[in-house]
Amino acid sequence: MLIHFNRVFLFIHMNNFGIAVHGGAGTILKSRMTAEKEIEYSGAIEIAIKAGSEILKSGGNSVDAVTESLIILEDNPLFNAGKGSVFTSEGLHSMDASIMSGKDLQAGSVSSVSGVRNPILLAKAVMLDPDIVMLCGKGAEEYARKCGLNFENEKYFYSEFRYQQFLKAADNGKAMLDHSTFDESDKKFGTVGAVALDMFGDLAAGTSTGGMTFVKFGRIGDSPVIGAGTYANNNSCAVSCTGDGEYFIRTIAAYDVSALMQYKGLNLKEACEEVVNLKLKGIGGEGGLIAIDKDCKIEMIFNSQGMYRGYSKNAGEIFVSIYK
Ligand code: ASP
């Protein structure tokens, strides 16, 4: 960019910036998708990327870009996060979210919250509070009220589709992953995530989920666990995961991608492949992740049939894909 001040020419070097977004991985097969649904999902991913890209393009930071993209996905009932969150065994909603800034390793996470319209905003508020990193349940909701965040009633979170999922799970007495049937080979994870690099070279990652249908006993997955579902470090990369949460916790998946780059010298692609196709797969963990590094390289990798995903660099063309 060239700026002209009273005949003095200043050359400002603009770094590359970019954003990637996911809307969950799993048994997402073209043969089971209608053309309308495909357009709906792709369109939603595209809108989320565009919103984040616009922030980055206008000189905004990666934390704000990630937050904005995730708010859009949380507000869309297609995804298992925010408005589209699945029902717990008590017929309620229990949402988790986390966010991390790679510049200073600040992180914020909330788990098992109900009624909060945008859990990612609550995670961000926690991140910006120097005294805390992780809040859960009623306390987290109280904190959201203190921060003036918007709450919605049960009607807002209700959808016939999610309620039918809940009834089916209740019949079988078993927790289900988003959209899954009781056929173990059919799993879909509707969690949403975003990773971004801004023009100042700062990375950020965020993840938000409604967890599992008919979930019991306060089960918590990887999404709110910093290092498992979300991680960002300016020295390596930013990562957001989706899949069988228990496996991502056991492999500390998001942090492991970063650690493999920092300590083993792997590049982003190699590190992502080692985590998703060797470590996770090795113990039976299904799912995927999106990652961006400090050089604006982007990986969107999964060991399942598909993953709703997309990215854009320097606010240019938006690429969206679903299947393998
Ligand atoms: N990872 C999430 C969890 O285990 C599920 C998902 O990705 O949809 O709660």
Map the helices and strands.
Blueprint (H helix, E strand, L loop, with lengths): L1 E4 L2 E4 L6 E9 L8 H23 L4 H13 L20 E7 L4 E8 L5 H10 L5 E3 H10 L7 H4 L2 H13 L19 E6 L5 E7 L20 E3 L4 E7 L1 H6 L2 H12 L3 H15 L4 E7 L4 E5 L3 E8 L4 E6 L1
Parallel strand pairs: 5-6
Antiparallel strand pairs: 1-2, 3-7, 3-13, 4-5, 4-8, 7-8, 9-10, 10-11, 11-12, 13-14
Helix pairs in contact: 1-2, 2-3, 8-9
The structure holds aspartic acid.
Give a nutshell description of this structure.
The protein is α+β, with helices and mostly antiparallel strands. It has nine helices and 14 strands.
Structure overview:
The protein is of the alpha+beta class. It has one domain: 4-Layer Sandwich (Glutamine Phosphoribosylpyrophosphate, subunit 1, domain 1). Helices cover 33% and strands 26% of the residues. It contains 9 helices and 14 strands. A hairpin with a 4-residue loop joins strand 9 and strand 10 (237-243). Helix 1 (35-57) packs antiparallel against helix 2 (62-74). The longest helix has 23 residues, at 35-57. The protein is globular, with a radius of gyration of 19 Å. It starts with a strand and ends with a strand.
